[in-house]
Amino acid sequence: MHLYDYAKGLVLEAGNHLRQWMTEAIDIETKSNPNDLVTNVDKAVEQFLVDQIKETYPQHQIIGEEGHGHNLTTLEGITWVIDPIDGTLNFVHQGANFAISVGVFKNGEPYAGFVYDVMADTLYHAKAGFGAYRNETLLERIPDTQLAQSLVGMNANWLAGKKITPVLMPIIRDSRSSRAYGSAALEIVHVATGQLGAYITPRLQPWDFAGGMIILEEVGGIATNFVGQPLAITHPDSVIVGNKEIHKTILQEYMKPHEDFLAPWHEHYQG
Ligand code: IPD
Ligand code: CA
Ligand code: CA
């Protein structure tokens, strides 16, 4: 079977399991802080995906949020980048509005992206160079928009007295309004469908953006860090996702004046 079709089927199958597992007992643990949660379901979904991929493609590499492949030394061949549940807080508190996110890379280059909104049963997917889809519907290329006429995705926590708050506040002030969805992968696909003009966040891990980034690029959107560099699956980064026009405006008019403050990847991105 073609790798793309295999990956698509696998993500849907993981979603079926997830819907079943969430009807059983959910154990919640904290990770780096009391608000950083992980559940047995996050771990089970990642383990399911890893076991299946390893059985079918033993030579493939896998980076998964819940512990797999964090010390990869090469991106040669196929690398899967997996977030078993993106939006764990939504999963725990809402039982909805979370996604399985999978990015597949060939020699470090985008090959295919999948973001599955599990409870809405909506799969966003793209094979690089062949367009992006919401389920079986081809997504149109996103139009350019102005900040003043756009909704911007941003988590309000970043506007609550963080070191980076003074950089981000003017963007929200000058936008039409802000929205926060609680799942980076879903926010990136909301930009890919044109529902959001942009999504901005100071710190994401590769598994948060890998799948969505590939979908976004297929509709003409762009993703970089706060100083305009491309995102890479080898390290965390600050993230601006948008249609080309709004991305350019945010970068040049709102980030560039703070270049010295933003350039080094240091503690003010940590919250
Ligand atoms: C988180 C979500 C959230 C974003 C955080 C991520 P998780 O992922 O994407 O929206 O603001 O930075 O860590 O922990 O739910 O997989
Ligand atoms: Ca995540
Ligand atoms: Ca996660």
UniProtKB/TrEMBL annotation:
Keywords noted in UniProt: Hydrolase, Magnesium, Metal-binding
Q: InterPro entries this protein is in?
A: Inositol_monoP_metal-BS (IPR020583), Inositol_monophosphatase-like (IPR000760), Inositol_monophosphatase_CS (IPR020550)
Which CDD domains does the entry link to? IMPase_like (cd01637)
Which chemical reaction does it catalyze? a myo-inositol phosphate + H2O = myo-inositol + phosphate
Keyword hit for Hydrolase: yes
What Enzyme Commission number does this protein have? 3.1.3.25
The protein's name is: inositol-phosphate phosphatase
Taxonomic classification = Bacteria, Bacillati, Bacillota, Bacilli, Bacillales
